[in-house]
Amino acid sequence: MISLVFYFLPNWLHSHIIVASILVNFVISKYVQKTGPSAKYFLILGIIYNLAVIGYYKYSFFFGEIFYYLTDVDMGLTKFILPVGISFYTFQQIAYLVDCYKEKDVNYSFWHYSLFVTFFPQLIAGPIVHHKELLPQIMRLKNLGFNAEWFAAGAFIFIIGLAKKLLLADNLEVLATEVFSHADKGEYIGTFTAWVGALSYTLQLYFDFSAYSDMAIGLGLMFGIRLPINFLSPYKSESIVEFWRRWHITLSTFLRDYLYIPLGGNRNGSIGRYRNLMLTMLIGGLWHGAGFNFIIWGGLHGFYLMANHAFQSATRNLNLSSFKPFFVLVTLFFVVIAWVFFRAETLNGALTITSQMLNFSPSGTESIEVQPYMLLLIGFGFFITQFTPNVSQMFNYQGWKTPDGWQPITIFLDKFKLRKGAIAYISCLLAASLMFMAQPTVFIYFNF
């Protein structure tokens, strides 16, 4: 009930969507588990229903514009305000239906299933959780007492995430928005400013999504639930393949298990693998947003993955360990280029910034003045991404992989001998974060 109140209060106009989604999917899941050919038809019906809901609210206006461009026929479609969290709870329920069809013995009550879908720490922007990992924990909650250590660890992690959002992501957003808004308007952006804007957004998105992931884990622990790691220092990656094992881990896992592998995975040789990688990433790009820039972003990452696999095959017998720092820089360079398309509102704006980053355009008069403190913030941000431990390393947190052997806050304090120092540190982070809460802020992934 608390999770539904959490969702309904700011989104009451869309409350019927998630309620209907839960009811329909739960009923269909019962028929999907039956034997006989009808189970497959109900599975197809369930998938069509979920895709139709997300397609109507998220993509109908986009495809209507394409149809109008091609045929000059206006379908009169309205651009909806996207229901918060619809991409996440829709994908989560599609995965549930597929698992019900495969396993045939998924037996949960309606109330347990409803909490699985609406559990508020991860409802809005993930992680996309698997029923086998979350529902057993939910069912055990009534037998567990209050765990002060878990609550303390959860509060610690939550405050770290809050600080990332308010102190880093939101301050980086100011410069990133200014640069991209000028580019989207067709104004001149110099090479230096283009790089500053792109790097600002690269860090803004990193700390914004890392913050939400930490806060979700922290809130989950405070309620006695272990959520999966969804973000694992992706800018330390030495390849695009590794990047997608560290960035939005649960989405990457979903796309692999429910799209890439059903398409054929790497079972049909290199050509089949490359085709499936590109299709998976194009769909992954479209999942993030209804726009050509998101499709281009997905296509770029599809191309990156193809090139990465080809490079790995060609250098399989070579020892390239001494080139690791170079590989990190190269990976980050291509990730930054792709983020420009992810962030820009228009294709022209993205091309303006990327062309200036690569210095392909003539010079002109700069319209944006970059303040020195922003350069310091960018440098500090990249230092954090490369040289500081993440939450998993701080607390030896492995999500649900090692539920019995996990000792979160104790390991952190015993390792660094900073019990009083840790409390002072987290108190300062909380105080500084509260000072920056004058204006309401929104997580970037709320838009997806």
TrEMBL record:
The listed locations are: Cell inner membrane; Cell membrane
What EC number(s) does its UniProt record assign?
2.3.1.-
In the UniProt record, does the keyword Acyltransferase occur?
A: yes
What are the UniProt keywords, alphabetically? Acyltransferase, Alginate biosynthesis, Cell inner membrane, Cell membrane, Membrane, Transferase, Transmembrane, Transmembrane helix
**What name goes with this protein?**
Probable alginate O-acetylase
A Pfam family: MBOAT
Question: Where are its TM segments located?
Answer: 12-29, 41-60, 80-98, 110-130, 150-167, 188-209, 285-305, 326-342, 370-388, 422-446
Family per UniProt?
Belongs to the membrane-bound acyltransferase family.
The way it spans or sits in the membrane comes to: Multi-pass membrane protein
Pathway listed = Glycan biosynthesis; alginate biosynthesis
Source organism (scientific name)? Vibrio japonicus
Print the organism lineage: Bacteria, Pseudomonadati, Pseudomonadota, Gammaproteobacteria, Vibrionales
Q: What class of enzyme is it?
A: transferase
